[in-house]
Specification:
Strand content: under 5%
Order of helices and strands: HEEHHHH
Radius of gyration: 17 Å
Strand order of the largest sheet: 1-2
Helix content: 55-70%
Low-confidence stretches: none
Number of helices: 5
Distance between the termini: 26 Å
Length: about 140
């Protein structure tokens, strides 16, 4: 019989507090993306110098705002080191896209609406890398 006092390796209690913060905000981000897809579908989305509309917006949002974060969350719960790599990849793509957008579509969106998500994601990446020892 298992000891009830032992903490499971994937226990919420073992996740460092700062990673819990990133974890919860990532879930909120994913949920918000589902509400944003119809808006971006019509308004468009800047992606590395191109401006995408309609159905072409969906794969970008799915990868950067839904699939990447979900894979990271699963890896975090399982304490997998690859979760750090996944987070680094999708966050760097997101941030690099924002830098390009600041030069190409700044007038349409404004500096602040473009910059804030990239800044938040950069802070997320810092927290993830800072807590790299949590992952095995």
């Amino acid at each position: 019989m298992k000891d009830k006092n032992k903490i499971n390796k994937t226990s919420w209690k073992q996740i460092p507090t700062s990673l819990k913060f990133v974890f919860v905000l990532s879930i909120i981000w994913i949920i918000g993306t589902f509400f944003a897809i119809p808006i971006k579908f019509q308004q468009g989305l800047p992606f590395f110098g191109m401006y995408l509309f309609g159905i072409s917006v969906i794969p970008i949002m799915l990868f950067l705002d839904i699939i990447g974060p979900i894979i990271f969350l699963i890896g975090t719960l399982k304490r997998k080191l690859w979760a750090v790599k996944i987070a680094t990849i999708y966050i760097l793509i997101f941030v690099l896209n924002t830098i390009v957008a600041l030069f190409t579509v700044r007038e349409q969106f404004g500096i602040i609406p473009l910059s804030i998500p990239a800044i938040v994601y950069t802070v997320f990446l810092y927290v993830i890398i800072k807590n790299k020892n949590y992952y095995k």
